[in-house]
């Protein structure tokens, strides 16, 4: 069952994290920009649920998938594309963080929820050009094993799933995560990042994979709106009555 938001929040609600991949990555000739990115490193990522110091009074799990967490190198690079625009990357305190991780962390900060990164067993190439080629060539229903697992879901009543729109679809590790876990009776909110698309059919795909969950459309945040993450999250939480 899908429940759609009844209130639009600017262009952020009903429009959700690597879909320049969906419509075509942005090219750049800015070598200085690429060199600056290479000087930064990825933030270490846990394969387990990261507990919130606030004690998680609302029993919320914020789970997310992001490309930077799923590479096998400390730096992400490209000769052809502007990876900061195309790969949903940001640099914060000298470390590379994905747009979806930024959104998930902000939701956790506002709700007191726990955070979990969906990690594929086989990492994606840190060469963004190679990753694009591999993903375009991959079958639509490609299966990916996961190396991170939540385990016991009984402590959560609400799950927020944050993900990028890849070629108008869910990334394979997100599908694997939904297949692996049973959210029956739980509220499941879809939140996404995108280059220029809306949810496309991803919310319907989530509902099909989790038929006994109460699936809600959250919001879509575009790559060029990442500076508005905090405001977008707070506005969504208010309009969705999430904090009641």
TrEMBL record:
A Pfam family recorded for this sequence: Flavodoxin_4
Alphabetized UniProt keyword annotations: Signal
SUPFAM superfamilies named in the record: Flavoproteins
Superkingdom of the source species: Bacteria
Biased segments, Basic and acidic residues type: 26-45
Cleavable signal peptide: 1-22
Region annotated Disordered, chain positions: 25-52
InterPro entries registered for this protein in UniProt: Flavodoxin/NO_synth (IPR008254), Flavoprotein-like_sf (IPR029039)
Ranges where the Flavodoxin-like domain occurs: 98-238
Keyword Signal on entry: yes
Descriptive protein name: Flavodoxin-like domain-containing protein
Naturally occurring in which organism (per UniProt): Megasphaera massiliensis
């Amino acid at each position: 069952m899908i429940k759609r938001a009844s209130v639009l929040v600017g262009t952020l609600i009903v429009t959700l994290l690597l879909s320049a991949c969906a419509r075509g990555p942005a090219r750049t000739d800015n070598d200085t920009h690429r060199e600056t990115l290479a000087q930064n490193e990825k933030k270490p990522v846990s394969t387990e649920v990261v507990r919130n110091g606030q004690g998680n009074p609302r029993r919320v799990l914020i789970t997310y998938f992001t490309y930077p967490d799923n590479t096998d190198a400390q730096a992400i690079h490209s000769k052809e594309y502007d990876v900061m625009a195309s790969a949903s990357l940001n640099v914060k305190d000298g470390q590379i963080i994905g747009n979806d991780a930024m959104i998930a962390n902000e939701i956790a900060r506002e709700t007191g929820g726990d955070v979990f990164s969906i990690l594929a067993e086989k990492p994606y190439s840190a060469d963004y050009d190679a990753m694009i080629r591999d993903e375009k060539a991959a079958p639509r229903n490609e299966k990916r094993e996961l190396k991170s697992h939540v385990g016991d879901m009984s402590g959560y009543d609400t799950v927020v799933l944050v993900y990028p729109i890849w070629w108008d679809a869910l990334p394979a590790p997100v599908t694997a995560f939904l297949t692996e876990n049973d959210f029956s009776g739980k509220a499941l909110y879809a939140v996404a990042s995108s280059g220029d698309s809306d949810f496309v059919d991803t919310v319907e795909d989530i509902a099909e994979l989790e038929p006994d969950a109460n699936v809600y459309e959250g919001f879509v945040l575009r790559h060029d709106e990442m500076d508005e993450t905090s405001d977008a999250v707070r506005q969504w939480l208010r309009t969705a009555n999430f904090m009641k």
